[in-house]
Amino acid sequence: MINIQRHEIRTATFVWLLLLAFTLATYLIATYVPFGPAIVGIVLGVTFFKGRLVICHFMGVRYCRPVWRVIMMAYLLVVGSVITLAYLAAPVINH
Questions:
Q1: pLDDT tens across 39-68, in order?
Q2: CA distance 23 to 92
Q3: How many CA atoms lie within 13 A of 19 on its CB side?
Q4: What is the full DSSP assignment across 19-87?
Q5: Left if phi > 0, otherwise alpha if psi is -120 to 50, otherwise beta: which for 60?
Q6: Quick one: DSSP state of residue 1?
């Protein structure tokens, strides 16, 4: 049992460090790279991946029935899609 706990702790620590690295990367991209649709797509893609990591590793959804994983992934896709649509619609609304 102790080996299982150590493995889970190592996995959680690795995922946490990965989340920190992705957060730092998206911050640096948003700060220093010229803004554009490709950058928004990259940042949203990384954000989706980060959300998936949180859902699977820290919320424990990977141990639930598959329907709950589908619901949570659909939630991420819907939120990301709404943000993308808002970004794409912004220039149309302002003019």
A1: 888 888 899 999 999 998 888 888 889 999
A2: 30
A3: 16
A4: HHHHHHHHHHHHHHSPP-HHHHHHHHHHHHHHHHHIIIIIS-GGGS-HHHHHHHHHHHHHHHHHHHHHH
A5: left
A6: -
d(CA 92, CA 95): 6
Q: How many residues make up the chain in this entry?
A: 95
pLDDT for 70 beyond 70 = yes
How deeply is 42 buried, as exposed, middle or buried, from its count of CB atoms within 10 A (0-12, 13-18, 19+)? Answer: middle
Q: What is the pTM of this model?
A: 0.78
Stretch 11-28: mean pLDDT: 94
Number of domains in the chain: 1
Residues of the domain holding 55: 2-94
